[in-house]
Amino acid sequence: RDKTLAELKFDKERIKNGINVELGCANGLFLRYLTENGSTKTLGIDVSHSLLKEAKQRLINAQIISSEDENNITEDFFDNKNIQLLCASSLEKISNCSVDNLYMFHLMEHSEKPQLLMEQAAKVLKNDGILILEVPVSGIISSFFQSKWRFLMPDEHLNIPSVRSVKILAKQNGFKVCSLTRFGSGVTSGTAPKIIKNIADKLAKLFKFGDRAAFLLIKK
Fold it and tell me: Which of these, 195, 132, 126, 138, lies nearest to 162 by C-alpha position?
C-alpha cells in the first residue's frame, strides 16, 4: 500500500491531519498502516464481524461499534485516538461531507452496484476530499488469460471494470482523476519460474497494462 500511495503521489500528511475511513477494512492491516503514519481519526468498515474481531486483536485502542448503535457518524464522532470498527455493508451511516480520505482496496469488484458505491463515496467526502481506489481491471491481460485469468472469480467478483469505465464513473460522480498506476502481469507465484514472473511484472508496470489499477480521485 505504501508503494501504491507513493506512485499515486498521495500526500501522507493528509493522514495525520484528516479523518481516514477504509471501507472493506477486513482484518485491519491498512488501518494499522494509517495509525503508524499518524492517523488519530480512523474508522474501518467491514461486513464481516469475524474479520473485525481479528482487526480488534491486531490493533491497539480499537473498538467495535454496532451499526445499530450509531445512527449517524459525524466529524465529532472522531474526536479521540481510538480506531473505530463498524460492522456494516456500506457508507450510509457516515454523515455527508465529513471524511477527508476514503480508501477502498479491492472492493468495487465485489459490489453489485458500483454506481451507488461511488455516489456514497462522493457524499461522505468533503470538497477536495480524496478517494483512493484499487481494483482489478480488464484489458490486455484478462484477454490473454481468458478463463484462466486470476481475477475471474464469478462467485466473488460481480463486476470487473476497465480503466476507462472507472474514469467515466468517477466523472459522473463529481471526481477528478488526479493520478493512476497499474501493476500486475497476471502471472501468479508458482505458475511460472520466478525470473519469468519478475520480468512479466516489470513489463506490465513499464508499459502500464497491469491487471490491477489504483486511482487517486479528488471530489470537486
Answer: 138
